[in-house]
Write a structure and sequence with these properties.
alpha/beta, Rossmann fold, Aspartate Aminotransferase, domain 1, 2 domains, 3-stranded antiparallel β-sheet, globular
Length: 429
């Protein structure tokens, strides 16, 4: 179940250790961390291990990988590494994560989402951090989106390991958006940032293990590390999270349940600019990222406009609730979004259809409003999108349907490249 990528004289050498796995409590899917355990922790015995994780790094029984590693005699866990939101997953988005000593284990925690000694942003392990370990293990649940910083952290940590001769191991996990549908704009490398590090679409439909393999072999790093992927057992590309029957542990405060990544994909992009107009995506309510509402919106007109787009796998229903504002409660109205089919639903595109629909029915141009009041939000919006093409096109009132056609050529090319890195065992065939 382990795929080991080694830098040899010959092209990529891929060896597979296969094991007949017994049923564990009748579960459908074995996570990469469980397969690693069933095989006796190959690749870790006798080595000093660093673990890049947070509370989402658990197995199907709810045991954290930290706990499991500490219970095994032949695994020497000597350091923990923290990404955005911290080792306990509670730090607010964008807030600096400090290094510390884990009070539960006494193991040092190194932050790769903080600042260095000169006050500059720190986004990958330093040589001093890596000097203490022989292998860095990655066990984090991501969101299946290019802008989710964990996949940026993964690749940059791989690069740092390559520079220092440290091995890297990915304990594979399901993509909560499934492994079938690829969509959205590609990253223009001129807009590379921590919320868009790799030249992939916004929704890339790969597991973290597959993406790590691609990042390494497409030469996106300044130095290649030895890469090992602990594959899952039983996961299939068409599965939703519910299909896996696995418990969901929030990888970040914005993703409290397994359905939320799909809604983040659908509204999170326009969420970077919508608040300046009084439009809300349900923040502070039980359905964050699941609605579009404002005091000045007409729900009926908005729903009629959205239904004209005939978006498969998505339904819209009217919504009205009281939103908490600095001036007290305010009534807002709009539409609630219901995603019914992850494979068919154009999640990323919905962001831009919502932008277009709001402009059509309410005469509010979200980009224009943000440009006048908070140009810094526009710049961040472009980083999330991965280029300035979308902003320019929407400002010229180019129909979203034309934007989608513009993306098709790049997506087809990406899918050809992506095919090389899809793990065969995850196929539905």
């Amino acid at each position: 179940m382990l795929w080991i990528m080694k830098k040899l004289v010959v092209p990529l050498c891929l060896s597979i250790v296969c094991l007949a796995l017994p049923s564990l409590h009748g579960q459908k899917v074995w996570l990469g961390n469980e397969v690693l355990r069933a095989e006796g922790f190959p690749g870790l015995s006798g080595k000093r291990v660093g673990l890049l994780t947070n509370p989402s790094g658990i197995d199907s029984r709810g045991l954290s990988t930290v706990q499991v590693f500490r219970q095994v005699e032949n695994v020497q866990l000597v350091a923990l590494f923290a990404v955005e939101h911290g080792i306990y997953g509670k730090v607010k988005a964008g807030d600096k994560v400090g290094g510390l000593m884990d009070p539960q284990t006494g193991i040092p925690v190194f932050s790769i989402y903080g600042t260095d000694d000169n006050g500059k942003p720190l986004r990958k392990p330093t040589p001093e951090m890596l000097r203490q370990i022989d292998v860095l293990v990655y066990d984090l649940q991501d969101a299946g989106l290019r802008s989710f910083t964990y996949v940026s952290a993964m690749g940059l940590a791989m690069e740092a390991c390559g520079e220092q001769g440290v091995e890297f191991m990915v304990l594979d996990r399901p993509n909560p958006l499934g492994g079938v549908t690829v969509e959205g704009p590609m990253l223009d490398k001129e807009f590379r940032s921590y919320v868009g590090q790799w030249e992939i679409p916004y929704r890339y439909a790969m597991t973290c293990g597959e993406l790590a393999w691609m990042i390494r072999e497409e030469n996106w790093l300044s130095a290649k590390c030895k890469l090992t992927i602990a594959k899952m057992h039983g996961w299939r590309r068409s599965m939703s999270w519910k299909d896996t029957e696995l418990a969901w542990v929030a990888p970040s405060p914005m993703l409290p349940d397994s359905e939320r990544p799909a809604y983040l994909a659908s509204t999170g992009i326009i969420g970077e600019i919508c608040g300046l107009s009084g439009l809300t995506l349900g923040g502070g309510s039980p359905f964050a990222f699941q609605c579009v509402a404002a005091a000045w919106l007409d729900p009926k007109d908005l729903m009629m406009q959205l239904k004209q787009y005939n978006l498969p796998g998505i339904e819209f229903t009217p919504i009205e609730y009281q939103r908490t504002t600095p001036r007290g409660l305010k009534n807002v109205r709009g539409t609630r979004i219901l995603i019914k089919d992850l494979v068919r639903a154009p999640l990323t595109a919905l962001n831009f259809y919502l932008f277009e629909a709001v402009r059509e029915v309410a005469g509010r141009d979200l980009i224009q409003i943000a440009s006048k009041t908070r140009p810094d939000r526009i710049r961040f919006f472009e980083k999330i999108v991965g280029s300035d093409n979308v902003r320019k096109s929407l400002s010229r009132q180019v129909p979203v349907s034309d934007l989608l056609k513009h993306w098709e050529k790049d997506l087809k090319q990406f899918e050809k490249v992506r095919q090389k890195y899809l793990i065969p065992d995850y196929s539905d065939n």
